[in-house]
Q: What sequence folds into this?
């Protein structure tokens, strides 16, 4: 059984998002099941016990990135145990995370984004909503959790910006395009006809039953329209965020400004987009420069 105060620690001391907290708690529950099956008291766990757990994860085919998250959760759990004086030292401190190869996210072209929007049937009830969703994700570079949590009261039409609540409940202001605001305006006409469930009145994007959208609904919608538009790029809602940042950088935007709009705590996270742009430049040289051809 997990120490009952662990979740509270993640919220109050670490300010993690609810999704991260849920993932960490699930990961620690898996660790507890592993220890219990082998008669190991987690208070007395040693480095070799964690190593055996990670070997089992690897043999189960758990991806390297997921293993890294699980290790992070384990370290947080044992930090909490030390902080609460439940144990003296953390046996998890020496666990090494698996090496992660740099993953360059997929990026859509403006033409592909327009094609995806063009695949939406605006005569359907949700048509204008779905168009507004895609344009808002691309226009503002929102995470899907930020999109479904976006409130009408935080959309400032005259000033042309939105207030976004990101990871750790941190708020930031992001400009929003005239195109996105027009799409939202068109969607609001349909939204006014909905019977909205109590507690959902201020959420911008609702389903036909008057409830807040889920992340999974947005994921399914994006995949569907991409397929209908003939877009072959492997994508998810996050792809629009990557495209937002990459297009800004390629257009000459300052990296610090992009960092602020994305809500990245560290500039190092934002710098991945410089690698994407360099990849594009490298492909251009390979294709068009005489010395780039083999």
A:
């Amino acid at each position: 059984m997990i120490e009952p105060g662990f979740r509270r620690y993640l919220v109050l001391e670490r300010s993690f998002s609810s999704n991260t907290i849920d993932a960490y708690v699930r990961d620690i529950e898996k660790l507890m099941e592993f220890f219990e099956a082998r008669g190991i008291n987690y208070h007395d766990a040693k480095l070799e016990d964690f190593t055996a757990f990670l070997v089992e994860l690897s043999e189960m085919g758990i991806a390297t990135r997921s293993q890294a998250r699980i290790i992070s959760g384990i370290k947080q759990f044992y930090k909490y145990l030390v902080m609460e004086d439940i144990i003296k030292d953390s046996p998890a401190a020496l666990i090494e995370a698996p090496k992660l190869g740099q993953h360059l996210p997929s990026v859509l072209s403006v033409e592909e984004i327009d094609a995806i929007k063009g695949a939406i049937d605006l005569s359907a009830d949700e048509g204008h909503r779905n168009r507004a969703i895609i344009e808002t994700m691309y226009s503002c570079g929102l995470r899907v959790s930020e999109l479904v949590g976006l409130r009408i009261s935080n959309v400032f039409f005259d000033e042309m910006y939105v207030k976004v609540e990101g990871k750790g409940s941190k708020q930031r202001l992001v400009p929003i395009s005239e195109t996105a605001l027009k799409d939202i305006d068109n969607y609001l006409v349909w939204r006014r006809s909905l019977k909205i469930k109590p507690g959902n009145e201020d959420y911008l994007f609702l389903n036909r039953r008057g409830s807040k959208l889920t992340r999974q609904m947005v994921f399914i919608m994006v995949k569907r329209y991409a397929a209908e538009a003939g877009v072959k790029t492997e994508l998810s809602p996050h792809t629009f965020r990557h495209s937002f940042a990459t297009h800004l950088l390629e257009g000459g935007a300052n990296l610090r400004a992009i960092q602020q709009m994305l809500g990245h705590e560290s500039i190092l996270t934002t710098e991945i987009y410089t690698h994407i742009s360099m990849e594009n430049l490298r492909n251009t040289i390979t294709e068009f420069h005489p010395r780039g051809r083999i």
Observations:
- Residues 29 and 198 are 34 Å apart (CA to CA).
- Residues 18-37 form the longest helix (20 residues).
